[in-house]
Design brief:
- The chain is mostly helical.
- Helices cover 65% and strands 4% of the residues.
- The protein has a six-stranded mixed β-sheet with strand order 2-1-3-4-5-6, with helices on one face.
- Strand 3, helix 33 and strand 4 form a beta-alpha-beta unit.
- Helix 6 packs antiparallel against helix 7, helix 16 packs antiparallel against helix 17 and helix 18 packs antiparallel against helix 19.
- The protein is elongated.
Length: 627
Amino acid sequence: MYGEVRVYAELTRNNEYNVQTPTSQNPNTTLIYHFNSPFELKQAVAILIKTNKPLTLLPLPRVSSICALTPNFPLAQQIFNYINYPEIPLWNTCLRNLAEGNNVIDAILLFHQMCSYNVMPDSFTCSFVLKACVQLLDIYYGRIIHGYIEKLGFQSNLVLINALLHLYGSCGAMVDALQLFDKMPQRDIVSWNIMITLLAKKGDVDGAFELFSCMSERNLRSWTAMITGFVHCGKAKEAIRLFIEMEETGLRANEVTVVAVLAACADLGSLEFGKRIHEYSNKSGFRRNVHVCNTLIDMYIKCGCLEAAKSVFEEMKERTIVSWSAMIQGLAIHGQADEALELFNEMIKTGMKPNEVTFLGILHACSHMGLINEGRESFASMSRDYKISPQIEHYGCMVDLLSRAGLLEDAYELITNMPIKPNGVIWGSFLGGCRIQKNVEMAEESMRHLGILDPLNDGYYIIMSNIYAESKRWEDAARVRKLMKDRGVKKTPGWSTITIAGGTHEFVAGDDNHPQAEEIFKRWDKLLEQMRLKGYVPNTSVVLLDMEENEKEEYLYRHSEKLALVFGLMNTKSGETIRIMKNLRVCEDCHAAFKVISEIVKREIVVRDRNRFHCFKDGFCSCKDYW
């Protein structure tokens, strides 16, 4: 450093840095405390040397921040060494600021500088660099820090080890994360929670639950992580069961837990439980939480309570694009296309810009209700007005809209000119339109693609077989079903569920194993007499099996959604809405039957099938037509 002092003294004598003797009015005095570059720092040092003032007057955090990412890093080191000040706390302060700032990569660059100039890291250094690595998903420097942790004996520092666990898992290195977790000499509740969250996110919910079950102590985050994991892995029943178990321990859910369990209710269509969580949420002060409100909208929509969803939406003081998009999508799948379009226009007037999901809702609305012109305009508006490139899902909606409207040539042209390679869903939508239009040739073209893109999807084989059967091409229908058998493709069995008094009851077609099966069949026979008086005639054309007409009728009468409906009528109060979920599409006969039944029993019947909601009331369905 003394060599540097001599250099700076020489510089001042030569006036290379334009140094003046400081006075009360001299701006050089300010420079000592407010230098903004390494050049100005050198000026400040020169001033102090010339005036025989100590270098300790320099603001050292400023020295480190000015030199950190420049070739003048050694200059800062020399200054710290000269005044005998430990440098690592100063560099750590810089690291922390960079890791928490907007340019996180600079924290890694500073760490690289420190390594290059032999600055030995401490536990704080490791902590700040790991924080940056997690944000950048930088496993390379993460492994370097891991090496320092082992070398410097920080293995018992749980903050560092937990950060490493998080980094490895976030970067997809689950083997490393599990090995590190297994080798930990001690673990805290954070360690367990990190591993449970990581495993659940990677889809290993069983592994996550195994760890959860081994925990001697659990906090709210532990329960929430496991509940969320079940939801994300499609195990909504287990999520709700675990939530109830958590409540029994005395823990109270926070907003994150509420969002997770509401998502489970949405997946299951568990309306009553969802209402209970809604009430708890309001009492707990979460009424203004946007995430909770958005999930409530989604839950009510998926449970068939459109009015309740509207109520939540209208009460929101703050709405995000997620709020608007969820409500628009909800109106769409409930057959309220006009309202969906009106809400979209209202959103635009507020200044909120639509995103890809918003347009997906609009296109669904147009597709479900056959609004061809509106659909085409919305699709064009995406790129024209909002610079949003349509994705595969948007093209799928347009293909569905055009093909179901009979514009098969237009739909086919759209598919062949797509900038994205069409997938099975695109060709599947086209196949569905071909069935409605009874176009065998184009259906066969669609099936050629589906045989390559999605050869194990049973639905496509069944549709193609049905298309042949409706055209009286029985040999071709049989050939498709044989092909299905040869490829080991099995038909997905249809089932329907209905929830009454907190209990969920499941029915399959022809189900005679239910405890009330005999009563259900008798009640159906009585209901059928009333239906015939209203003009109902069974649509046996949907039964494409080689059997007598009366056998086809009996087959229709035992469809799972009809059994669930009759069970609901038997076990609910007069006037109460019946809510049914079905895993497949509602058949045309059930659709017609439910309209008649809704008029006879003076009840609203809500059916959620694979594609949409059907709200039957007073002899009508919310859908414009059965497509």
